[in-house]
Amino acid sequence: MRRENLIYCGIDWAEKTHDVALVDDTGQLLAKRHITDDASGYKILVDLLAEYGDTEENPIPVAIETSRGLLVAVLRTGKRQVFAINPMAAARYRDRHSVSRKKSDPGDALVLANILRTDMHAHRPLPNDSDLAQAVAVLARAQQDATWNRQQIANQLRSLLREYYPSALAAADGWKNGLCRPEVREVLRSAPPPTRAARLTRTQLQAALKRAGRQRGVEAEAERLRDVFRADWAHQPLPVENALGKQMLALLIQLEAACTAADDLAEAVEEAFPQHPDAETILSFPGLGVQLGARVLAEIGDDRNRFADARGLKAYAGSSPITRASGKKSSITRRWVKNDRLNHVGYLWAFSAITASPGAKAHYRHRRDEHSDWHAAAQRNLFNRMIGQLYHCLQHRKLFDENTAFPVHVAVAA
Predict the structure, then answer these.
(1) Does residue 363 share a domain with residue 382?
(2) What pLDDT, in 10s, does the model give residues 137-195?
(3) 97 pLDDT above the threshold of 80
(4) Among residues 3, 305, 273, which one has the least CA distance to residue 129?
(5) Strand bridging mode 62-64 / 7-13
(6) Is the pLDDT of residue 102 over 70?
(7) pLDDT value at position 34?
(8) 3-class DSSP state for residue 43?
C-alpha cells in the first residue's frame, strides 16, 4: 500500500521475542506483531514495514530501546533512521498513556512509536557511521573494558596480598605496572605463600624471570627479589597462609587472562585503527596515540552530520560546563550526563597533552594560575578546547597545528 500518511514504528525488544507497533501521524494504531529474534522474525518485520509503505527512498523511522544487536543491524540497512530511546525516557512517556504504571510489551512498543510521532525532533538517531568505524568502535571499547577489568582484578589481588604477603607488594613496587607485570605473576606462581618465597634461591628466581620473558638485568633483579623476600616480615599462621595462597593463585589465573585479553585487543586496535581515513587527523593531536585515538573515534564516529557544531560534541563529551537557573538562582557546574567513555579518554588525553604540547601546558598553567582552577577543572577545560579543535580539523580534513591551536600561549611560552 502507499504511504499517504507518515508512519512510525516502535519495537519493544527482548531476548527471544519482540513486539512491534505501527502508528500513523494521528496516533492511530495501524498494526502490531509479535516476532521472534531470528531470521524469520526479522523477515516478518521487514515485510510488515514494506506493507505499510517502507521503501529505500522513504523508509519508516523506528524507535527501539537499544543501539546494538542483530535486530538493530537489520533495521539500519539503507537510509532508515533508527532511534535508540533511553529506557528511563520511555518509562516517563508511558505515564502519559496509563496511570496504573503497569508494564506490558505491546504497550511499550506503542509508546515508542508515539515518541517518534510527537517528539522525533528531540531525539537523536543512531549515527550513520561506516563499517570500519563501527569495527574500530567494537575493538576499542572491548580493549578499554579489558583494561578496566585487568585493573579491577589487580586491585583485588593487591588487597589480598596486603593480608598475608607484603613482601610481594614490596617486590612489585620496583616495576612499572606493578602486579600486571609478567615477572611478578611468574614469581607469585612459583611461591604462593611467603614462606616458600623466602626459600627461593638465586637460580630459581633467575629461572622465573627468564620464563616471564626477562632478558637483561636478570641476575641483579633476582638478587633484589631474594633480599626482599628474605627480609623480616609479619606472617599469618601457616594453615591460613597456605589457604590464602590458593586463593591468590585463583586470582592470578584471572589476572593473567585479563592481561592477555587486553594485550590481544590492543594489537587488534593497532591493526584496524590506522586503516581509517580519520586516523591521520586524530593522531596529529598531541597526547593521542593509537589506543586513545581509537577510543575517540569509537565514541564520536565518522558521521559528519552527527553533531551540529562543536558545542554539541563538547556537551556529549561532558567537557563543557552547564548552566542551571531557577528563579533568582543560577549555577555553573560540570556535566553529569555525558558519554563516560569519551570523558574518561579526555582525562587521559589532557594529561598526556600537557607534556606533549607547549601550548597545552601553557593553557593548563593559565587555568591554574589565573583562574584558580583545580587540577581536574584545568584538565577538563583543556580537553574542552582540544576536542573543539578536533571537531574543526575533522570537518575540514586538516591536521593539528600548534601555532594555530594555541597562538597566544605558544608566544608567551617562547
Answers:
(1) yes
(2) 999 999 999 999 999 999 999 999 999 999 999 988 877 778 888 988 999 999 999 99
(3) no
(4) 305
(5) parallel
(6) no
(7) 92
(8) helix
What pLDDT is recorded for position 3? 46
Grid cell, residue 28, equals 492511530
Q: pTM to 2 decimals?
A: 0.85
- Distance (Å, rounded) from C-alpha 414 to C-alpha 412? 5
Q: Parallel, antiparallel, or unpaired for β 62-64 and 82-84?
A: parallel
Q: Contact, 37 vs 16, CB < 8 A?
A: yes
Same domain? 108 vs 206 = no
pLDDT at residue 1 in the model = 41
Last residue of a domain, one of 91, 126, 161: 126
Cell readout for 322 is 552547564
Residues 228 and 290 in one domain: no
8 Å CB contact between 64 and 112: yes
In a domain, 1, yes or no: no
Q: How far is CA 206 from the centre of its chain?
A: 39
**The last residue of a domain, from among 271, 287, 312:** 271
Range of the domain at 225: 135-271
**Residue 283 and residue 267 share a domain:** no
